[in-house]
Design brief:
alpha+beta, Serine Threonine Protein Phosphatase 5, Tetratricopeptide repeat, 19 helices, binds zinc ion, Nuclear Transport Factor 2, Chain: A, four-stranded antiparallel beta sheet, 53% helix
Length: 398
Amino acid sequence: MKIFKKKKCKICKTKIGTRFCMRKGYNICWEDCNILRVDEKCPHECEYHLQSSEIMQLKAKSDSQMEYIDLLKKQMAFWINKPQKIFNDQIPITMTESSEGKKKIEEFLNQYKINPIVPLYYLKERLSLDDLKVYSTPETYEDIALEFMQHLYTNEWGKVTSFMSNNEYWKSHDLKDNFITRIAANKVIKKINSFDLISSALTKERDQALVYFDINCKYDLTIDLQLINNSWKVKSIIIGKPELYNSESEAIQQVAILLSKNETTKANELLTKYSNIYISSSDFEYYWGLYYTFIKNQKKAEHHFLQAMILDPAFVEAKYNYAFIQHSNKELETAKKLYNEILEEAPNEPKTLNNLASILIDEKNYEKAEKLLKNCIKNNPEFEIAKQNLERLEKLMK
Ligand SMILES: [Zn+2]
């Protein structure tokens, strides 16, 4: 992996300088941008300048909710120290010296219908507005991503796994440790000393989000979250920028094409590269499995199909390939169990119907085998092996 040194913010010298500041003439971090722009003196040409700065009516480009909330707080801090027309040019912070003044501010604030993410608690605290009604702020996907990062950072693997969308399945199938081993061994995750939320994006349907972190001012890490039963779960982790999320399917295709042309050396190179980026992708594990099948290393193929299956329990092709290896190795009970699991997900999967039937024929469970084969052939009349199996079965049943 090639690592280019990232540019640091020239103001704080600790965070990443993610944006160019027109006032300063160099790159700065979003926190320092907020400190600067809250005074409304930024040039309008800068896309981050404050478009409207009335209290609670903030309009400004932000790369994340965290940035927006931080900007709101900075705006509040600015607002409370400046004479306000609405209070006949009195300064809110001095108004709070009298209970009458406090009441005026509370009345003013209470008239707003406030977006729940607005940190009203900040004003309440700063101005000691004891009677101001403040609702608790809802937990956002960024909060979840931050908690998740915190657990990665402190190596609390059990907690890390509890954020994953497949956790319930892993728990019930005793597979949690497998994911932990995978994550704990990752080179970038092992090295996390500091992390900063840089940006986030939400889909139009508001059910999927990407949250992008800088790690140690050196690496990029993106967390892909999905809203499942009203709670945000981590679907996958990408060692890279959020743009890479969209190129995953293209990357998969590149590997698939190389394998179909039997260009195994090149496929190996790409698989190595992409598995270092898409570290929790079931697809690349699946293609590693195919790769090792092509170069006839069944042991490794088996390992990777199993990994793909664990990462995505609904991945029928991966499960089938794993089951087939068990079948070939005469691990018939395991193979049968897996074939049955596949048929629960995909009741007409032809290869599975046929293979399971062939095991059942050997076990002399003819009736069930016949049912499976007939079902298989009904939807796939060209499936020769299934037809041969049915003929064999019919002879046996005579
Ligand atoms: Zn900075």
